[in-house]
Amino acid sequence: MTASIRARATALALATAATGFAVPAGTAHAATTCSTGVWLASYYANTTFKGTPKKTACDTSINENYGTGDPAGVTLPKDNFGVRWSLTRDFGSGGPFTFTAAARDGIRVYLDGTRKIDLWKDVSTTRNKTLNLTIPKGKHTLRVDFAAFKGSANVKFTYAPRTTASVDKTKPLAPTGLKAPATGHAFTLAWTRGAELDLAGYRVHRRTGTGAWTRISGSALVTTTGYRDLPAATGATYSYAVSAVDKAGNDSGLSAAVTVTSIDEQAPAAPTGLKAAATADGRGYTLTWSPNADTSAYQVYRSTSADGPWTLLGTVAAPSYTDTKVATRTQYFYTLIAMDAATNISGRSAAASAAPLAIRPDAPRNVAAIASGSVIAVKVTWNLPREQAVGSYTVYRSTTSPVDPATATALNCAIRGEGELGGDTAQFSCTDSASLRRGVTYHYAVTQTADGLESPLSGEAAVTFPGDEEPPAKVAGLTVVPTEYGVRLHWDPNTEPDLARYTVYRGELYEDEEGRVCYDPHAVEWLSPGTTEYLAERLPDGEKGCYFVDAQDTWGNSLFLLERDTNVVEFTELDLTPSVGTPEGSPVDLTAYDVSDGVRLGWKDVADAVGYLVYRWDRDTGRYESVTPEPVTGTAWTDTTAARGTTHFYWVRAVYADGTESLPGGAYAIVTP
């Protein structure tokens, strides 16, 4: 065979993933997953592809000569077995393709579910079929069904693009994901390989500014997804784009462009004329200097010594800077570095200095902390005599007393003026809502900063929030029981006195070689704290999934929300799906639902119908059995004989005046006990 058939029968261990939760190990087999462009082969002990495949495997091609033996090595019959290959891949821009099929005995080829080749017959010699067709752009699914009826069996199928210029007029898609460094000496371009099956290579284009595009990759095509260009290091700005070329010579449009700038290595001259003077309000220093040619920004440095070390204060574009973060009675020295657009830097300017400042504001008074009644937030208030309220404020928060600014949290809250008290006192406030916790006592103190100087700490205020941050215990004893009318959940009650509710989550079961996880869980029901069971009315069609139940207290704490911790139970629904499928194209639009005295069926009136016959699926006989010996004349009927505690499947056929019946319309009803 073209690819080995690998059995995957190892038990799955517990696993975790970023988007899921681990569930207990089980005995289910992991599904076979094949790489892009590789066929998934499923082997059946019949030619109708019914039931579970005897084995699945990955095939890089379809080219098999089974002779008269067992193709899968899993005790398939020598005659009357079937193999189904399928794959889904991106065909890029699509275009003309050739399908080539050869088989003894039957072969059918489908594109997106539409049959394209049909050689379905028991024959004694190999038959061949070639089909030319156009595949639209994007992702499509190919399926090949092969039936070995009697005697020797062989099958071969290939698909390939038609690449002659007279046939293929479809341009490939423009390349995507083009990337390049923003600046540098040389520029290494990289882009994403296209999905075209007939891709021949790429062409690289460049332009300066908004000028015309010029191909720079030469006459030969670039066959990789990268290209290196070395323009002159003049500081010029370039744009790059890439086009794709297929084997028929069709050239795509240009990709989205990337813009880069070549490096500029010439440094500007050191700034001159630096001066430092106190600001008009006496709360800092204003620096000025002479503008520099070929300079886009200036870096301003400060030190308490004329010889450094120097600390960067900021970067500015204009030839001036104001320093307001100064300490009392401190002599400061300043220097500059010029920087051009290419980040080349000059040498340092000569240092400048000014006389030191010496002003310290008063500390805020009457600090109070008021807890919010609805959310976890604290409003901190303070005041000062109006003539002393001259600066900005910093509110410190600590879980210990006294408040130490070196270890406390300086809040990033908006300071609001609350007006004046008695005409001579100014009132201020800020609201703290960042990372506060219940059951913790917080201490607050405030300072005022003016002229670059910070005041002493104010007096303290404290507040404690009620409640706790301990989540309820993990819900235990969860059982999930599939029934004929859905899935029943039951769990042991939690005993926490502040329990507020249970949340039922359902997820999809995801399996890989390392284990099994409950993927993408989402809440499906919120239940009162006294509830210990839940019924999910679901169609019993054998679907797999997982459930867990999370407990939440009145403070919003839960193990799942806080720690992503929970007990997960997986399940497999019962499968009551009829073995006979409902055909398409029926004029009867049927609905069915549970009522107190049975199952109520309803449908729209069908033109020319003189009545309707109702059938119900009988699992014992494996057929849809009539439950209305005579045609029903209306457009509704109640099945009062439908048993409760199961799911019923129905057909309704329209009856015409000549006695013929239409194709059946189908529906089901979940009937709880």
Gist of the model:
The chain is mainly β and about 675 residues long.
Report on this structure.
The chain is mainly beta and 673 residues long. It folds into five domains: 31-161, Galactose-binding domain-like (Jelly Rolls, Sandwich); 176-262, Sandwich (Immunoglobulin-like), CATH 2.60.40.10; 275-353, Sandwich (Immunoglobulin-like); 365-464, Immunoglobulins (Immunoglobulin-like, Sandwich), CATH 2.60.40.10; 590-671, Immunoglobulin-like, CATH 2.60.40. Helices cover 1% and strands 47% of the residues. The protein has one helix and 49 strands. It has a six-stranded antiparallel beta sheet, with no helix packed on it. A five-stranded antiparallel beta sheet has the order 1-39-38-41-42, with no helix packed on it. Strands 13-19-18-15-16 form a five-stranded mixed beta sheet, with no helix packed on it. The longest helix is centred in the last third of the chain and has 5 residues, at 559-563. The radius of gyration is 39 Å and the shape is flat. 30% of the residues are buried.
Strand percentage lies at over 45%
Percent helix range: under 10%
Q: Spans of 5+ residues with little confidence (pLDDT < 50)?
A: 1-29
Number of strands: 49
**Domains, number:** 5
CATH architect. name of the largest domain: Sandwich
Distance between the termini: 53 Å
Structural class: mainly beta
Main sheet specs: 6 strands, antiparallel
Task: Please list the strands of the largest sheet in the order they lie side by side.
Answer: 3-2-5-10-7-8
CATH-derived topology of the largest domain: Jelly Rolls
Task: Give the CATH superfamily of the largest domain.
Answer: Galactose-binding domain-like
State the CATH class of the largest domain: Mainly Beta
Overall shape: it is flat
> What is the overall pLDDT average?
89
Rg from Cα = 39 Å
Helix tally equals 1
